[in-house]
Amino acid sequence: xxxxxxIAAVRDAGxxxxxxxxxxxxxKYAAEADTVIANGCECEPLLHTDQHHxxxxxxxxARALAGLASATGAKRGIFALKSxxxxxxxxxxxxxxxxxxxxxxxxxxxxxGDEQILVRELTGRSPPPLGIPLQVGCIVTNVGTLAFxxxxxxxxxxxxxxxxTVTGEVKQPGIVRAPLGAAMIECLALAGGASAKDAVFxxxxxxxxxxxxxxxxxxxxxxxxxxxxxxxxxxGCHLHLNAVQTADSMRRRAAAACIQCRTCSDLCxxxxxxxxxxxxxxxxxxxxxxxxxxxxGKLAHLCCECGACEHYACPMQLSPRRINQAVKAALxxxxxxxxxxxxxxxxxxxxxxxxxxxxxxxxxRLGIARYMSLATPDLGEAAPAAVRIPLRQxxxxxxxxxxxxxxxxxxxxxxxxxxEKGLGARIHASVDGTVTAVDSAVTVKAG
Length: 447
Ligand code: SF4
Ligand code: SF4
Known about the structure:
Number of strands: 19
Bound molecules: iron/sulfur cluster
Oligomer: single chain
Shape: globular
């Protein structure tokens, strides 16, 4: 297959990064690289979605990675997963052998699946501050994304469904498959519902996911191309309390309790790959209300929001990650960009091997250790009566709707097109049915 045909298949299928922010894959794959990496490292504790993809489609993922290597001119194709994922290692090994790929096994540390950390682990190169792996010759792509790529290239299938881990305080944890636009509450129902009386929910993983206050709020949330997990936790748990702190409270606590020990900086994965980032300086600036007018405040731009500082490093249980988020938002609103150094400081990596955060210990700190060993069998597929498919499930501009209320659609039919000259991704119907509304999403009544 030619590169143009490969990219066209990915574009037509509406594929975006399935494990992260949803960058349109046809744009990412259009580059040239020397190394392409399939990321099966399942960064977040409790999530088993990548493992599920590898268990059910190691050959397909490897075939797609080989296709990506060919399209980008890469000499190396590396299939990365963790050595703890014992059940799938033989499958991945066999698939790698079949398609001439390398297999790399990583230890169980956080955040092994962060693409910059993964590139550093596998190639010894660090992408520059605010940079991307391509700047050091690498493309990293999630195994779930590659499963979509294979379906697009082999069968012309569009992205219509997503698998996600539903776990925590549920009656039956497991992997749920759902059409895009299905209400998250339907995924919860497939897992038997919440087993905690007064539950809160996390969309995504415990470290970087978004906390949803209650079941009523969960009813408004739908499955998208970037959904990977739904975690149910008791109200008042550490993760819930951390998420609901107000900016005022975070500022007061930063001013009163930050002892400038710099442990947050010393354990920061970005600092440890050589970025000139010292988050304790952001804390100092924020605590004194000087974050917008200081050089220290601008460092917040370098934060990838992994949460290692606030959920593991800080002895005072402060919130550097949330503070960096808030400072970044304020800086963007004030049109203040990062203008500091962009070099990689190799000497900062000297302690990196000794400062990797073991996931089991991290889970204990998060108060979620008791969910770590829950089995996550396949729970089947949600079959909602209606879906509400957002026209923007990706980085870039929303897709332009191609349908109107009253139209009949078939699953897999393109219902949203990429705006001309815009960055974006196509959107497809996820069920057969009738369009009932079109606004920022296309609502389809199944049937
Ligand atoms: S680890 Fe906590 S107390 Fe220490 S400098 Fe960072 S925010 Fe302050
Ligand atoms: S969240 Fe914390 S540990 Fe992660 S990059 Fe930002 S400052 Fe560093």
